[in-house]
Amino acid sequence: MHNKLTMINGNEIYYESYLQQPSAPTIILLHGFLSSTFSFRWLIPLLRKEYNVLSIDLPPFGKSGKSHSYIYSNENHAMTVIQLCEKLDLNAITLIGHSMGGQIALNISYLKPDLVDQCILLCSSAYLKKSKRSLVLSSYLPFFHFFVKRYLEKSGVEKNLRNVVYDHSKIDVEMEKGYLEPFLEERIFPALTRMIRDHEGDLPVQFLRKIDTPCLLIWGEHDKVVPLQIGKRLHGDLKNAKLIVLKDTGHLVPEEKPEEVFQLIKEYIKETKQ
What we know:
Pfam families: Abhydrolase_1. By secondary structure, the chain is of the alpha/beta class.
């Protein structure tokens, strides 16, 4: 494994690289909101046995930069990933995106369809509207980032994890520490404020219907964050999509069912390549 920090699109981008098999397909992992590459900790060891794997911290999360001038929109995140692929000379990739990362994957598939062979969406964000004007205006207040910090502290890591994980017995100290660590750095809160301001909304239906990329949708039956009905709607709007529902599973499918998710990914890549 190689941990790397590189300047892309005006921000420092951290990624973990497992590119030891030149002939194998390349998978790029994109995490969700308030998360990092840590969320794929159980999935990566399974994937790297058969694929080249890149796991990216989308800024301002994880170990990536928290630039005040970077545009934290879905489209610009997508351009950052595209530029990283160009820098590393990657093509014919498989995108795996969880939650917000799924929306970034859809943006990449829309903007650069020739780059992507398959798109695997794990409880993907979809149909979210642009940030409310009142919230955007509030984000310009000098100390607004303190309100963002206080809100996140009030909700707490354990409470948030109980909301995204169906089986609460899976929540342990290691998991809590892994999801808390990125927020111990004060610089993330001004960047999150900028992210609220920059959020342009998810891809509209007319854009989704133009995506030809084969898409596998894997959803938790009991997802409270992005309910299954969103997955069913997305399945209908994507012209080349397959939906699989995991029973007794919440929103955090890479943590809750890594072996099952891995097998579904493996079968889908084989199926679409044939």
